[in-house]
């Protein structure tokens, strides 16, 4: 089949002419060849997506069997889904000295979680959440392929770029970091970006809405995306997305959360250096540029950004305007006092990944144009191409593979690899925990260690040890002396001692530092019983 060439005549005189002579004519696929390659590459991408879903569902299940997923946060999601399936919309038991039943919307506005109540009827297990999360995130490959193909005009490059996304370390970690509704925003934002790039508003709107339902902060990146496309498409109608998104964010932060929590967001204290309330934090950030710059460019943030960028071959840096869509997330993570918000191993990258990928694709095309003599010139004025687009896409995919090997979660089990099969091996202690969990009947109220929480959260009331007042069963693991989601061995041991002296509770299981206590009638509280 023929191809269209749009290379110009190259002068042959002098060193400059020799350098230009190394450029190849720019060729474009004709319609028939493009269609055939698109169909073939689409199957490769589909196979890659299925492989991702299967592999990461298996790895997530292995980690669950190791008691990696805790009460925070997988257990919270399990309880919210379980209660929704039983007619109590997103109801959870709060942690802290005075636990109570409340809607999860008082902590995070992520009502998309309620949708998992339907599959819960078919598969009532935390593993269902982990499996569906892997499958849903795997669909990111399709908009990645479509976007890469559209911008490079080569399905082979699009398929390689989709492969790079599936190998991207942060994407895999997001799936393995227990279960979080915000992780589902990654494919939703990618679909929304693709359809807005294609000027398909009706197709984009459902994904914009669903993404907003994944967490209260997602509307901030939607607002930034509206501004981005208003500039990119030279159309003010995209600012409608910005206006609606800002209104939704304000409603979620200043109306929904306070209503269900009987107070402000419990996560505002992560930004205490800038204020004591959400409004004060916003004002503090806007009026303290020096402090913001110092915090953002601290070493931890620079290392975090490097680990986000280099697995895409640093290509996102060549499209800085696209990167700015993720600026709200960069600010939220960079200014937080919580160090795990500056790690690719947690779910906080979910709303950054789509725009890092989009920036990588656009950056790759800019680099391709520059290498072809089109620096600061439109593509039509290129003198040729030094590297083909699919070659640059292959380099990006190889960078993602190297990133996964050095930083990522895939168990390569080779020298220098970040993860190995041992990271997913089940211990004998996990088998003891299985025995202990099996002694606790379904439906009864429990008090659990954090590491055991996800296995016992499918019930209406779940307290977090060291709080156990009102619990019918208490399970304690001394090998993991958690105080809620942190380690505090001294406090843990102190409360365990009180529980042993509390004659209202009888020991029904004790092995390998794992204990189960059952509430019995009568008895007297031990000293300082909570």
Helix content: 40-55%
Query: Beta-strand percentage?
Result: 5-15%
Biggest β-sheet: strands ordered side by side in the sheet: 6-5-7-11-10
Amino- and carboxy-terminal Cα gap: 79 Å
**Uncertain spans:** 7-20, 523-530
Number of strands: 11
Q: Find the structural class using helix and strand composition.
A: alpha+beta
The number of helical elements comes to 21
Spatial extent as radius of gyration: 26 Å
Biggest sheet, in brief? 5 strands, mixed
Q: Would you tell me the overall average pLDDT? A: 91
- Shape, please? globular
Describe the structure.
This protein has 21 helices and eleven strands. The protein has a domain at 44-76 and 126-132 and 427-530. The model is unreliable at 7-20 and 523-530 (pLDDT under 50). A hairpin with a 2-residue loop joins strand 8 (482-483) and strand 9. The strands form four sheets. Strands 6-5-7-11-10 form a five-stranded mixed beta sheet, with helices on both faces. A two-stranded antiparallel sheet has the order 1-2. The protein has 530 residues and is an alpha+beta fold. Helix 6 runs parallel beside helix 9 (185-197).
